[in-house]
Design brief:
It contains three helices and no strands. By secondary structure, the chain is mainly alpha-helical. Helix 1 runs antiparallel to helix 2.
């Protein structure tokens, strides 16, 4: 298998889309600011992608916010 820069870029982009979807799905109802959660996921996915796994895990295990 020949891996070049184009294939690596596609893998990173697909990873970003999957992590963005999962993190926002888990953070819905637990965060008051979903765009900020998405922005942090974007940064973590492109700068140091294993950290985005931990960030997704954080939102999946966080308890929902209790309001009112």
């Amino acid at each position: 298998m020949d891996i070049n820069v184009t294939v690596a870029g596609q893998i990173i982009f697909i990873h970003f889309l999957v992590m963005l979807y999962l993190t926002l799905k888990f953070a819905k109802g637990k965060s008051g600011n979903l765009p900020l959660v998405g922005f942090y996921t974007f940064l973590l996915s492109y700068l140091f992608f294993p950290a985005s796994w931990l960030y997704c895990w954080y939102w999946s295990n966080k308890k929902p916010e209790v309001t009112g």
